[in-house]
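ARCHIVE CARD
CATEGORY: sequence design from structure
SOURCE FIELD: tokenized fold
FIELD CONTENT:
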């Protein structure tokens, strides 16, 4: 006799796998149909609502995504209790933000003691660039002792998003002092607060001050994990300051401490490949990353870009298409890589399409509080390439290693 509980578990596992397969193939409607059927069976399962919203967003079905958010909150007032709600807000065009705010306020009325809902509203206000309101809401909630750390974090994130760097640095400095006095705070917590301070200084372009602090922490570090954290920061700071050789040297030291870390291997491998330096070493490093996570879009992009630098454009395109079709393939730099590769292959229309996609993704990110300098540089470079093609001149695509 079959076990109904086991049968249901197996059925759900099969449905989940099938949905993932449809999404990977960008066949969104069958995935949506399966999730809707599943959601009707389990109307209180928050994960199913989130899954539907994410697929609607991937498919560009924003009206349906908004309707699902509204249904979610009416069915489960606690709302986004799994994952980061901010990611959903960032993917919806700004014209929907007022509707989301209305939904959140109604949900808070039903559940006024929910810290989760308060945080979701603060996240939304940040995305809407209403920083003063977000700060007031976070500070008002700090009075609840149980949630002080939670809302301290929201204050910090809001100050950082608003580019109020001095205030964010002051808050972080106080948190570092508190962590030093609190024996219950772990070494990891203290190190992460120091990392936050360094990142703020880098964001403010106070590179010399950041480097001085990072090097001091590195000298005092006692564990390999600490050293790797500070070496990553050192590399990032040197890169932002334009010291690319020093940035690579710091990453190399981090890789020596943990040669099997896929993230470190990818970062160093991509850096070497992008600059056309020691491509054999770059390939060894990137292969470690890809082997650890074969569907990771960043790793696939790194390997495709390595092949581009070797002038193996046919193979480069295959790997870059895998990256583009991966779950995290919505990236302007990746699309630019793919477009350059298509241009090298004489595929003019495909190149124009991917450059246009790169511009679209970058412009969409430009509306968000955290718009990376890399995205800004990519947007400017890709717009110049499209303009060159429009004018009938040769676009400035990336060089290869001779």
């Amino acid at each position: 006799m079959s076990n109904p509980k086991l049968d249901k578990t197996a059925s759900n596992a099969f449905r989940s796998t099938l949905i993932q397969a449809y999404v990977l193939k960008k066949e969104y409607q069958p995935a949506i149909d399966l999730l809707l059927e599943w959601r009707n069976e389990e109307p209180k399962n928050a994960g199913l609502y989130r899954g539907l919203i994410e697929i609607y967003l991937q498919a560009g079905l924003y009206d349906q995504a908004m309707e699902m958010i509204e249904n979610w909150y009416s069915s489960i007032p606690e709302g986004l209790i799994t994952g980061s709600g901010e990611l959903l807000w960032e993917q919806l065009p700004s014209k929907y933000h007022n509707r989301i705010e209305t939904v959140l306020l109604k949900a808070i009325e039903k559940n006024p003691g929910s810290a989760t809902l308060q945080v979701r509203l603060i996240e939304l206000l940040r995305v809407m660039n209403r920083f003063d309101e977000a700060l007031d809401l976070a500070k008002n909630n700090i009075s609840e002792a149980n949630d002080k750390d939670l809302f301290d974090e929201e204050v910090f994130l809001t100050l950082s998003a608003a580019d109020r760097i001095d205030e964010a640095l002051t808050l972080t400095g106080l948190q570092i002092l508190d962590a030093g006095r609190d024996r219950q705070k772990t070494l990891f917590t203290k190190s992460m607060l120091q990392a936050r301070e360094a990142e703020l200084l880098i964001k403010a372009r106070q590179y010399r001050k950041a480097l001085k602090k990072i090097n001091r922490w590195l000298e005092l570090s006692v564990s390999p994990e600490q050293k790797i954290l500070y070496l990553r920061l050192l590399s990032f700071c040197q890169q932002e300051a334009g010291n690319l050789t020093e940035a690579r040297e710091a990453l190399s030291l981090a890789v020596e401490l943990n040669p099997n870390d896929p993230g470190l291997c990818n970062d160093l491998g991509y850096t070497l490949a992008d600059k056309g330096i020691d491509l054999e070493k770059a390939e060894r490093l990137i292969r470690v990353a890809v082997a650890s996570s074969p569907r990771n879009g960043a790793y696939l992009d790194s390997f495709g870009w390595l092949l581009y630098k070797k002038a193996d454009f046919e193979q480069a395109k295959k790997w870059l298409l895998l990256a583009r079709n991966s779950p995290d393939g919505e990236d302007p730099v990746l699309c630019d890589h793919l477009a350059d590769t298509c241009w090298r292959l004489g595929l003019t229309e495909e190149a124009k399409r991917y450059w246009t996609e790169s511009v679209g993704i970058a412009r969409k990110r430009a509306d968000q509080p955290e718009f990376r300098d890399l995205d800004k540089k990519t947007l400017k470079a890709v717009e110049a390439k499209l303009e060159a093609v429009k004018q009938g001149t040769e676009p400035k695509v990336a060089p290869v290693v001779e």
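CARD ANNOTATION: The chain is about 75% helix and 0% strand. Residues 80-84 have pLDDT under 50 and may be disordered.
SHELF: design records, drawer C
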